[in-house]
Amino acid sequence: MSLEIPAxxxxxxxxxxxxxxxxxxxxxxxxxxxxxxLAAVTETISRAFHEDPTWSWAFPDPSRRQEQxxxxxxxxxxxxxxxxxxxxxxxxxxxxIWIPPDGTEIAExxxxxxxxxxxxxxxxxxxxVMDLLERFEAAHPRDESHFYLSLLGTDPAHAGRGLGMAxxxxxxxxxxxxxxxxxxxxxxxxxxxxxxxxxxxxxxxFFPPGSDIPxxxxxxxxx
Length: 223
Fold this sequence. Notes:
- This protein is α+β, with helices and mostly antiparallel strands.
- Helix content is 36%, strand content 16%.
- The chain has a single domain, classed as 3-Layer(aba) Sandwich (Aminopeptidase).
- The protein has helices at residues 38-48, 53-58, 62-80, 113-122, 126-139, 163-177, 192-197; strands at residues 31-32, 86-88, 94-99, 147-154, 182-186, 201-206, 215-220.
- The chain is globular and about 45 Å long.
- The N and C termini lie far apart (43 Å).
C-alpha cells in the first residue's frame, strides 16, 4: 500500500521519503540549531503538528493551517533560539525545542506581540487561543527549576523510524548531565506512552476550551 502525503504537507524543498527505511544503526547525528536553521526547523515542526489534536483545535482550517503554522511556530521557535537548546538533525528530519531552567519561551519584549499575532492568524478565535495559552502557563510547574521540552516533532516523510524518540533520548542525556528534571506537555494523548518510556510520568492535565481531548503534563525527575 502506498503512503501519500497530503498536499498541505508537501515540503517546499526536496526530501527523500525515508518512512520505509529502518532506523539508523549509528547514533543520531544531532546539532544545535542556529538562526540560519529557523526556516527548516519551523517547517519540520509545522508539518509534524499538522494533525495534532490540540494545535489543530487552535488552527482548525486544515487548508490554512500550514500557512498559519509557518508564522506562529516561527515566532515561538525564534524566541527559543535565544538559548542553545534547539536541536535538529542535519536535514531537519526531526527537531526539538527546549527552554533551559529559569528561561522563557518568549522574550519579555515580545510578549505583547502574541495577542496581535493571533488576531491576524485566527481572527475572532484569538481569545480562545489566548485562553489555551493561559492554561499552558497555569499548568507549568514553578516550584523546581527544570528543563522544559516545548516542542518535539518529526517531519512526516521520516515518521515511523523512531527518530523523534532517538532525539529525545539524546537530549535527555544532556539534561541528565546537568542533574536537572524535565517537564513537557503532551498535546497528543497518543504520544504519552512514548514519553513514559523515557522516564516521564503524568502529573496533571488540562483541556483546550470546549475540547474533550486533554493536554497531559508530564515530569521526569533528575537523574
